[in-house]
Design brief:
Length: 189
Amino acid sequence: MITASSQQNNIDLGDLYQEVLLEHAKRPRFKSKPNECRFCEEGKNPLCGDVITVYCHVDEKNDGAPVSLKTSFQGSGCSISQASASMMCELLQNVTFAQAKDFIQHAEQIYTGKIALLDDIEEDVQALYGVSKFPVRIKCAALAWKTMEWLLNHHFDKDGFPKLGCKNLADSEKNCTTKKLKVVSTDEV
Ligand code: ZN
């Protein structure tokens, strides 16, 4: 039986993508708390104990229309959760709101095993397909993406305009809500 704890320190994804995951876990990209940032949200995966805070910085035009988003993260947890967050933040750099939403949906198709390859997504993210073979670990891969999706849905309107409320990171941290990903089956992720 595969359990979260038995795989915690000994990931055996059993495919060629394992190396990519481990490399990201060992040297996570964009793992930092930004100096300037208006939006952050925290997500938890109680199944494995993974905790992640995602940050989203918006470069805005004078009229408030978002030019591009940059993301980073902090947190602790298993290798898959850390690697997945690193891959996400590497992908979500200088992207539009619409692109970010598209990437998040595409990534979900990959880590849930619905599709192995997508042309428009960073090659490293394809490594998350290996996780889909281990349903108990999908939550670990999903954590960063689901938390970022929550952030975008709750701090931006449907056209990608940031909502009022959080003036700076301190303000955002005060209002940041912890989302616990429920333990659900692969189909429900
Ligand atoms: Zn985990």
